[in-house]
């Protein structure tokens, strides 16, 4: 789990951890059921106070992003996080705002931006499908070799 | 200035109305602070603010002129044995006997601490890359700091006390120092008190922060609270302003022309009305870093002092 902490912009460190874990989960870099590092390990890695990491994990647990299993560790929740729709839209609104501001600076109008969104959506979908296909293909030969060696 | 104190039963260090003068100069002026067990407590302030003097009181090297200092509930001046054996201390310039070799330093320091853990000391020595046979005076500044850090923590002190440990050191040694802080506080019930003017470090690892300015405690509390209380507002005026707008309760006002930035502490609810009365509007509200807060607070305190002395 790669998290980057900065002390320059005034955002509390536990909020930075919470946001980045949410982002990693939303983007699929952390899969449902995957274990996230123990508090002390992450504190060591990021050089931040363990209490800060503990607080971030508590927030994430409350938000339903991760689940603590007693005596074993903290895992990304299997069910999608029950963030309220309003909260989800709030996260997205910030991104949309910066996108629109940037587009304005670059003199690209709204219809063009929307067209680009559709285009990218298509690209991402194709890549995801390709990755899933490659995954499936990789598994098949592995099975074949093992059965082949048996015979 | 008074700050809410946690119950003194949980305080590893309890300082009440500490007052100290050197000659005509007041170095600590009625400072009260409590360091809760299991926390990292960061002390900030510019050079000469009184940080080292405060730490010397905790170590019992200086006697309180007025007020009281208790460490683990004990008076460090009356009971140095009861206090110092449970503290690990590293100063800005570790005062190491230069003729000693690293291995001799370990054995020598061990003699002072019943809880000294030689296996742990060896592990740290290897991790820090200190050759056992190297004489301390031949070590670089960074290596000397590491040797000092090793001597300060191999007895697993209940309280790790660091006075400007990172000043003038390279990022790698600073990382070792921060790791020591985190390692200490990761173990149940152990506490770290450290002073630094590297606010980025304080912000990373501290639970509590206190800010000394010319002997006065100007801020003290949980870091998250302090950060939540301070905000930067960007104001936009209809016409360019030739001088900074006067805003009651603002810690700092900076800018030029139509846009001004205001850092406030706690007066946020009143700000919109004040701003509207000035014919401006708030265009943005931002979180501020500890560094910004520090600069703003130090600036106000100086201004207040100058005004009151006039």
Description:
- With 151 residues, chain A is mainly alpha-helical.
- Chain A has 2 domains: 64 residues, Arc Repressor Mutant, subunit A, CATH 1.10.10; 66 residues.
- Chain A is 64% helix and 7% strand.
- Chain A has 5 helices and 3 strands, in the order H-E-H-H-E-E-H-H.
- Chain A has a 3-stranded antiparallel β-sheet with strand order 1-3-2.
- In chain A, helix 1 crosses helix 3 and helix 2 packs across helix 3.
- The longest helix of chain A has 41 residues.
- Chain A starts with 12 loop residues before the first helix and ends with a helix.
- Chain B has 310 residues and is of the alpha/beta class.
- Chain B folds into 2 domains: 207 residues, 3-Layer(aba) Sandwich (Rossmann fold); 82 residues, 2-Layer Sandwich (Alpha-Beta Plaits).
- Helices cover 33% and strands 32% of the residues of chain B.
- Chain B has 10 helices and 12 strands.
- In chain B, strands 5-6-7-3-8-9 form a 6-stranded mixed β-sheet, with helices on both faces. Chain B has a 3-stranded antiparallel β-sheet with strand order 2-1-4, covered by helices on one side. In chain B, strands 11-10-12 form a 3-stranded antiparallel β-sheet.
- In chain B, strand 10 and strand 11 form a beta hairpin.
- Chain B starts with 10 loop residues before the first strand and ends with a helix.
- At the A-B interface, helix 2 of A face helix 6, helix 7, helix 8 and helix 10 of B.
